[in-house]
Write a structure and sequence with these properties.
- With 303 residues, the protein is α+β, with helices and mostly antiparallel strands.
- Strand 7 and strand 8 form a beta hairpin.
- The longest helix is centred in the middle third of the chain and has 16 residues.
- It is globular.
- The termini are far apart.
Length: 303
């Protein structure tokens, strides 16, 4: 009787692993923008075609990569963020697993152009379905320029289940909001099908909130600034008179990561219990800073 257990080909294993990281165009943008921020970028441009289904381009002015690092970055579990298991308990970067780039490259056609400040020439790499098609020197600005084309081109069942362009674009903008609200010191420009959606200059948090949600929202906010032995809480909450039945902008961030947590939401709403009509809500933008080692894994950025 022949053996029935066998190792999957790398191409199949990579596609399966990619499904855990890349669910839709918004996932690609989250991973690439967070990598850009971890690389020290102060200016990030996002260019989308067909809500990211046809093309996603993320351009940054971060520190860039050498030719060797650029190639290695597409290998699974290759990362610059950690070196040993103990580092997992003191993470300050947005990502660390080394899954993002190989996952994207497994289900799309990817071109990367990147250069470090100290290098005269940069590197261009073309990858499709995890296979490096070519690598060559190229003249390019410092930083990284990722172009991700035809997402899920080689997994038609996954591509079929993408939603309409408007729905996917809404998912992208939701993801972008969660990032830009944590990094007001970084400027962002977002284009979709040749239309400019965002042009956010580097600024203060309050100005960033105004630039994203409008002056009316900004004018309704009260500042928070509390520090205890366990946590530092900053940000803004809205005045009671600004309450509404639906559509209130509500954001929690822990150590720079977006978080949804019913317990904390309930605590904020209970504070307003005698101040706003029943069934209404207020906006809040609350930022908590704690020692990374003290964060329970279940209060991460999972929805």
């Amino acid at each position: 009787m022949s053996d029935v257990i066998h190792l999957l080909p790398d191409s199949v294993a990579n596609q399966i692993a990619a499904g855990e990281v890349i669910q839709r165009p918004a996932s690609v943008i989250k991973e690439l923008v967070e990598n850009a921020i971890d690389a020290g970028a102060l200016n990030i441009e996002i260019v989308l075609t067909d809500a990211g289904k046809t093309c996603i381009q993320v351009i940054d002015d971060g520190k860039g990569m050498s030719g060797t690092d650029a190639r290695l970055a597409f290998e699974r579990h290759a990362t610059s963020k950690i070196r040993q298991a103990a580092d997992l308990f003191s993470l300050t970067t947005m990502g660390f697993r080394g899954e993002a780039l190989p996952s994207i490259a497994a289900v799309a056609q990817v071109e990367l152009r990147t250069r470090r400040e100290e290098d005269e020439l940069g590197t261009s790499i073309h990858i499709a379905g995890s296979k490096i098609e070519r690598q060559e020197p190229v003249s390019c600005p410092r930083g990284a320029n990722f172009m991700v084309k035809n997402l899920f081109y080689n997994v038609p069942a996954r591509r079929k289940f993408l939603k309409t362009n408007q729905t996917e674009l809404n998912n992208i903008l939701t993801e972008i909001d969660r990032i830009v609200l944590v990094h007001p010191e970084v400027s962002f420009v977002v284009h979709h099908n040749d239309n400019e959606l965002y042009r956010l200059p580097a600024t203060s948090l309050r100005m960033r909130l105004m630039n994203v949600f409008g002056k009316k929202v900004s004018d309704q906010l009260l500042a928070l600034d509390v520090e205890t032995s366990l946590v530092k809480v900053t940000g803004y909450v809205a005045r009671p008179e600004s309450s509404k039945k639906k559509g209130a902008n509500q954001f929690f961030f822990v150590n720079g990561r977006y978080m949804r947590h019913p317990y904390f939401h309930r605590a904020v709403m209970e504070a307003y219990e005698q101040l706003i009509p029943s069934g209404e809500q207020v906006a809040y933008f609350i930022y908590m800073e704690v020692e990374p080692a003290s964060i329970d894994e279940y209060t991460s950025d999972k929805d």
